[in-house]
Model the fold of this input.
Amino acid sequence: MNILDSELIQNQLLSSGYEFVDQAEKANIVLYNTCSVRDLSEQKVLSRLGVLKKRKDQGEKLVVGLLGCMAERTNTDILEKNPHIDLLVGPSRLGEIGGLLHNLRGERKIALSDFRTRKGKSLEHEPMDSLEALDAARLTGSKALKSQAYIRITRGCNKFCSFCVVPRTRGPEVHRSFESILNEAKSLVDSGVLEITLLGQTINHYPEFAKLLREIHDQNPGLKRLRFMTSYPRDFTDEALDVMASSERICKYLHIPAQSGSDQILRRMNRGYTREQYLDLIRRARERMPNISIVGDMIVGFPGETEEDFEASLSLIREVRYQNIFVFKYSPRPGTVADKRELDDIPMEIKKLRNNRMLECQNEVSLAEHQKAIGSRLSVLVEGYAKIGSKLQARTQGDQIVLLEGPISLIGQLVEVQITQASALSLTGMLSSGLPPEALA
Ligand code: SF4
Done:
């Protein structure tokens, strides 16, 4: 969600005439779009703000902006120790940044949400005016659209998992209208986008989600891949799974965080499902789509997590056979129920150990699953160069990384590859049918 927000802010500013530089040291305006999910990310932002403060103290004319969840969570409190911040903008007001910058004139601007002061009032059907404007800026601001794009369909969350700060920073769940999502999808596909990822904190809670998937798929034959994230285990209907299974170009991919494999931890996390209910959803998905890729999130070191609870998470990983998981060491987030009611009683040393053991467990699963792909022919979308080495990096529709040799002209193209090698993190392949005509042009 933050990658999308940053891209849309950039487009908004480009269309207002701002130019971008490649290093913060060369910029007159520095904006940090922030995440509050973990304490570590906030600490990094505070340290970078410290560097900017020194520059301003030395007389440099610089506009400093703190955007996103950290601005919302800390509210104006952050200004006490960081009086050099000129712009404080929460996630629901990012569409206003262009206007706020334009009107700064040496005076600080603050744009945070008011959902905290509107308790009890449903925002479910309120238009996301500011965010709609931000999303629309993509189509006018960006000259060269890439082959992949995100579309936000929902913002905020109503679940209140006990560890999570998101409902306090991004506010209650608000859905975009069917029509605006369909229009945006059509515009993107008409501009050459091949893969769309729909975004929402609990995306499958969108009303008539199955219908939305089907309509985007059916109305856009030029769209080669449609995927979505993040799904919430409790809300997944059979209808949505049926649409996924029967629509050829909807990726057989689910990002569906379990967070723990232990029922007592899930209860204290207020996740609203049991291990068995989670496994039942995985079974329902695999019955319809035997090769579906399942990706998950796990938290280690939640308060009170015993060795037995942790082992239950490891056994869930082996049972689900995730394609990949994101592992987080628990850190208490101010204002959350877990922070108020639970003692952060698992020492950091144990959290680190569990983190590493969990990654090792997942690596074993990933390697075994990847090895099954050797010899198969897969369609992949080439995204760019791999971070290490000279190979290109591509992705399967199940979001597996595939490394391959090929010319730069393949970037942005869908090609067929023959898988030749596998590791826990990626597959290696070779072009199986020569270069596509687009790459030769
Ligand atoms: S579902 Fe839970 S973890 Fe996910 S955003 Fe909502 S509160 Fe946070």
User: Anything to note?
Assistant: Residues 129-371 form a domain with the pyruvate-formate lyase- activating enzyme fold (CATH 3.80.30.20). The longest strand covers residues 377-385.
